[in-house]
Amino acid sequence: MKNKDIRRRNLVRLAVWTFSWVGIKAFLVFGHESLWGGLAWVTSLMLLLDVVIGLGMVVAYRRLLMNLDELEKKIQLESMGLTLGLTLVVGLAYSAMDITNLIPWDAEIGFLMQFMAVCYMVCIFINTRRYC
Amino acid sequence: MKNRIRVLRAEKNLTQGDLADAVGVSRQTINAIEKEKFDPSLPTAFRIAKLFGLPIEAVFQYDMTGD
Lengths: 132, 67
Known about the structure:
The complex is a heterodimer. The mean pLDDT of chain A is 93. In chain A, 85% of the residues lie in helices and 0% in strands. By secondary structure, chain A is mostly helical. Chain A is built from four helices and no strands. The radius of gyration of chain A is 18 Å and the shape is flat. By secondary structure, chain B is mainly alpha-helical. Chain B is globular, with a radius of gyration of 11 Å. The interface between A and B is medium-sized, with 12 and 13 residues.
């Protein structure tokens, strides 16, 4: 199998794992109240499934990274490093804003996830443009 | 690092995609190496030189002015 085909296969696998993970997470939160009426054992089971699928997604992402060439790996590394650093700095600042009541709402982890996603995409875009 | 990949590729009538497939990297990587925006690893540099049937120093030259 050609390298290009392996890469495409890895990308499709990652997409399937990611959508499954997002799906099970939404199902877990929605189902807890609306489908199984808050039954703790069902929620625990779904939570276990959520973690297992999440781990599958991480493995699929690792496999995708291992198959990239040196420039693509460099772009990914720089983007992930920047995302990690910025998330740490912004996340802790956001948390401090909540503790000191500078913001009237609670600092939710959802904000951090959104920030990470946007930051990672912007970094990938900028780094890709920089080398091409 | 300077290189002669674009000239050598033209002499052999190879596209960036052909060279990328032969070396096992993406076309964007070949493009970045040609434009000297990215220095390849030693294994990749050796594979490129071998593909053109030349010693590595005939394809890549270290740019002392970059120091």
